[in-house]
Model the fold of this input.
Amino acid sequence: MSEREYRSKRDFRQTREPRGDSDRSGSDASPVFVIQKHDASSLHYDFRLEIDGVLKSWAVPKGPSTDPRDKRLAIPTEDHPLDYADFEGVIPEDEYGGGTVMIWDRGSFRNITEKDGDKQPLDRAWENGHLLVELDGQKIYGGYALQRTGSGEKDNWLLIKMDDATADARQNPVSTENESAKTGRTMREIEQDESSSES
Done:
């Protein structure tokens, strides 16, 4: 999946989503991740990791868990441009993915994927369908595994919290953390602010 697919699904005269043609590119600094709460046809969480100059993306219907026993379905979606990590707002209902988008969590991450004792590059780990990352976010952090279930390009993945010092089966951040990591707004406030700016 490429950014071309991302652009083909959007009319940028109608939506304020980034086109993906800015000069922003990856750097030698730690790669970024973002989790965007998205109230589209159904509420879900878009989990995005910076890999090879784009945001590799998965829709996680139930959102991330801090309980290693939870195996959360992660449905791959098209690559998004890096500047999408800063997008928060409302996508018009008649546009692809219409609905309110909140930056639920964001931060940097570290690749901890290994194979045969050697660190495996992120792009290769993604191609092989097995990624281990250590998140440093505002709401969730620590080790997470992304595992593809099957061998086809359209197969789904699982997002699983690793059993490390940051695991906590008692927490349920998708229920208790309801404000934007970027602006502190709720989903309703984001929608109201957008409506006010258009009137």
In short: The first strand starts at residue 32 and ends at 39. The chain has a mean pLDDT of 89.
